[in-house]
Structure formats: structure tokens, C-alpha cells
From TrEMBL:
The lineage of its organism: Bacteria, Bacillati, Actinomycetota, Actinomycetes, Mycobacteriales. This is HTH tetR-type domain-containing protein. InterPro entries: DNA-bd_HTH_TetR-type_CS (IPR023772), Homeodomain-like_sf (IPR009057), HTH-type_TetR-like_transc_reg (IPR050109), HTH_TetR (IPR001647). Residues 1-25 are annotated as: Disordered. It holds the Pfam family TetR_N. Residues 27-87 form the HTH tetR-type domain. The keyword DNA-binding applies. Keywords: DNA-binding, Transcription, Transcription regulation.
Length: 231
């Protein structure tokens, strides 16, 4: 049975993962095995994943592999965890670069920067993400969740810096609208990244999508800011 990403910090997944190594050489070996697992998954899919295949790919003995991982599901979970962390880190980095390019321009350019950052960050891991999400659909949420949270946080900051509603408005409704629309943005860009589109087509789609969502958000916030909060 394939397991999803654990939300606990002790890295005990897949029916009891081995304890994380702390020595540099052991950490390097563990990372080597996780990278080999990602390569096997990308090339062979989940059905082709086995401890023997991963050990051979990593250039270690099967006995060495079992010092770090219990079984193939434990390996799968390690790749899921690492991929999610890499996507989040790359999203943060790419967005910083793209947002710097859009600084001082209309807010829609900043929203587009968010969408393109999601697209680029996920696209870098397309092959393995396809396998991870095909095997367990809920893994999409686990991989995307942190990026959705960051997207909502950034979008909220952007809109409140550009739109200054009066004091008598429903902040809860504004937050809900922003969370919903930014969630749609992150999810749509995630799906674009893992499907077989050309880069040009995907980027054009992101521009169209972000322009549309910007209009929705701007109109919604304008309406909310001109209607008093309800008791």
C-alpha cells in the first residue's frame, strides 16, 4: 500500500521508517538512495519500483538500503517528502526573481509572477510528480498545500497594499475570497505543469488565467469594501 506524506517531524513513514541519520556520510548515503528512488520512479513508475532496483541505481547493497528504509513505500514517501520541499523552495526562489521584474508595475503582473513560479517549480519535477500523484491522488494536495498557502499569503499582501478598503468591511469575507481564488490559481498552474503541454502554451495559459483571476479578485474586493460588514 502506498502511503502519503507524513505530517509528523520524526520521518517515520510507511509502517515505521528507519531513524534519520545524523552523520554526514550517512546523510549523503540516504540522499543518494532517495535520489535513486526518484530516478527509478520517473523511468519505471511505481510498478517498477523495488528495493533491488533502487539499490542498484544508487550503487549500494540492498542491506545498506534497509538500514535507512523499511520497504518500497517508505522509499516512495521519502521521495514525496523531498519533492514537496524542493517545490516549495524553488517556488520561493523563482517568485522572488519574477516579482522583482514586476516591481512597480500593475498588480496583475505580480499575480502572473505567482502563477509562473508555481508552473516553473513543479515543471522541474514533472516526471516524478506525475508518478507521485497518479499513485495516490491525495499526494497532489500534499505537494501543493505549502505552495497554496504561500500563494494566498502573497496575494493577500499584494491586494491589501494596492486596495485600501474602508474600516467597515468584512475582513473574513475578503480573506476567504483571496484564499479561494489563489487556491484555484495554484491548483491550475500545478496541473498545467504536470501535463504534456509545451512551455510556451503553458505560459500563455498562465497569463490568461492570472489576468482573469485578477479581474475577479479586484471586482470582489471592490464590492466587499463598499458594503458594510454584516452583524
Amino acid at each position: 500500500m502506498v502511503v502519503g506524506l507524513s505530517t509528523h517531524g520524526d520521518d517515520r513513514r510507511g509502517g515505521g521508517s528507519r531513524r534519520r541519520p545524523v552523520q554526514a556520510r550517512a546523510l549523503e548515503t540516504r540522499e543518494q538512495i532517495v535520489e535513486a528512488t526518484a530516478q527509478v520512479l520517473a523511468r519505471e513508475g511505481y510498478d517498477g519500483l523495488s528495493t533491488n532496483a533502487v539499490a542498484a541505481r544508487a550503487g549500494v547493497g540492498v542491506g545498506t538500503l534497509y538500514r535507512y528504509f523499511v520497504d518500497k513505500d517508505d522509499l516512495f514517501s521519502a521521495v514525496l517528502s523531498r519533492t514537496g520541499a524542493h517545490i516549495q523552495t524553488r517556488f520561493d526562489t523563482i517568485f522572488m526573481v519574477r516579482s522583482a521584474d514586476s516591481e512597480g508595475r500593475e498588480i496583475r503582473h505580480a499575480i502572473t509572477a505567482i502563477g509562473l513560479a508555481v508552473l516553473d517549480a513543479v515543471s522541474e519535477h514533472r516526471d516524478v510528480v506525475q508518478v507521485l500523484t497518479q499513485q495516490v491522488s491525495s499526494n497532489s494536495n500534499l505537494l501543493l498545500g505549502p505552495v497554496e498557502d504561500a500563494t494566498a499569503r502573497i496575494t493577500r499582501g499584494l491586494y491589501f497594499s494596492h486596495h485600501r478598503p474602508g474600516t467597515d468591511y468584512d475582513r473574513g469575507v475578503v480573506d476567504l475570497v483571496i484564499d479561494t481564488v489563489s487556491g484555484l490559481l495554484a491548483s491550475a498552474c500545478f496541473k498545467l505543469a504536470v501535463t504534456d503541454h509545451t512551455t510556451d502554451t503553458a505560459q500563455k495559459t498562465v497569463h490568461i488565467l492570472t489576468n482573469s483571476l485578477n479581474h475577479v479578485l479586484t471586482h470582489a474586493i471592490h464590492q466587499i469594501s463598499h458594503h458594510p460588514a454584516t452583524e
